[in-house]
Amino acid sequence: MGACSRSHTGWPWSVGPLTRESLDERIQARFLKSAPTLAECPDDGVAEVAILGRSNAGKSSVLNQLTGNRHLARTSKTPGRTRLINFFDTDRGGRLVDLPGYGYARASHAERHVWQREVERYLEARDPLCALVLVTDCRHPFHAFDQHMLGWARAAALPALVLLNKADKLAHGARTKCLRDAERFLREQPHTQAILFSAATGDGRKFLIDWLSERLAAG
Ligand code: GDP
């Protein structure tokens, strides 16, 4: 077993009071490297949390919100890097791993096939991988892509956090319903939790940072 156990059961995490300091808190992250295949990923066993999402769900905006570093998400969107596994060192000990090409609608079928195989090998066999963050658009979550990802998480016994992003676009009642529907949808999915999130306003950031910090410190 690598940096962290995949059979972790730690729900629920306490979020704690929102102080000025915690509201301002970010995760410091710095680009480490891009790997085109599983074989070229770092081999030092440092804990990893992968972040995934269909294009346009807001993954780059979530990374910006989380780190306060616009450059970081731009790094992953650089042409050439969208087909790579991108690693970012963090000040929490572990690494964030961005898989920008996964769910990327504009790739050709053949390209997608090759890329998908590498990413699936990464998700299945990568020992330091502790958890997944799945970014969805709360107005239409649980697309085939999202369900596919959650299937992988379940098969690999990986804890997952589903961000119901763009929650600022919903009225109060619709937000409550969205969360309730997601919780119902995830009832059979072990170690998986959904939260309302807004990369635009920062809603949910504190929870996400606590969740990630706990995972990233596991190494
Ligand atoms: P990515 O393709 O998943 O990396 O998505 P982006 O982060 O580039 O976001 C796609 C679009 O959604 C952009 O126009 C963002 O400004 C917008 N967006 C992302 N997150 C939010 C959010 O929480 N609220 C709102 N209102 N817009 C968002």
List the helices and strands and how they pair.
Layout: H1 20-24, E1 29-35, E2 48-53, H2 59-67, H3 70-77, E3 85-90, E4 95-98, H4 109-125, E5 129-137, H5 144-155, E6 160-165, H6 172-185, E7 192-196, H7 205-216
Parallel strand pairs: 2-4, 2-5, 5-6, 6-7
Antiparallel strand pairs: 1-3, 3-4
Helix pairs in contact: 2-3
This protein binds guanosine-5'-diphosphate.
What features would you describe in this structure?
The protein has a single domain, classed as P-loop containing nucleotide triphosphate hydrolases (Rossmann fold, 3-Layer(aba) Sandwich), CATH 3.40.50. The chain is built from 7 helices and 7 strands. The chain has 219 residues and is an alpha/beta fold. A 7-stranded mixed beta sheet has the order 1-3-4-2-5-6-7, sandwiched between helices. Bound molecules: guanosine-5'-diphosphate. Guanosine-5'-diphosphate (GDP) binds next to α2. The site of guanosine-5'-diphosphate has 15 residues, from α2.
Short overview:
The chain is of the alpha/beta class and 219 residues long. The chain contains seven helices and seven strands; from the N terminus they run αββααββαβαβαβα. α2 (59-67) runs antiparallel to α3.
Category by helix and strand content: alpha/beta
Q: Any guess at the CATH architecture?
A: 3-Layer(aba) Sandwich
* Gyration radius, in Å: 16 Å
**What is the strand arrangement across the widest sheet?**
1-3-4-2-5-6-7
Which regions contain 5 or more consecutive residues with pLDDT less than 50? 6-18
List the ions, cofactors and other small molecules found in this model: guanosine-5'-diphosphate
Number of helices: 7
CATH topology, by name, is: Rossmann fold
Largest sheet: 7 strands, mixed
What overall geometry do the principal axes of the alpha carbons give?
A: globular
CATH superfamily assignment?
A: P-loop containing nucleotide triphosphate hydrolases
Residue share in helix: 25-40%
Taking all residues together, what is the mean pLDDT? 84
Taking the alpha carbons of the first and last residues, their distance comes to 11 Å
Order of SSEs: HEEHHEEHEHEHEH
Q: What is the domain total for the residues?
A: 1
CATH class bucket: Alpha Beta
What percentage of amino acids are in beta strands?
15-25%
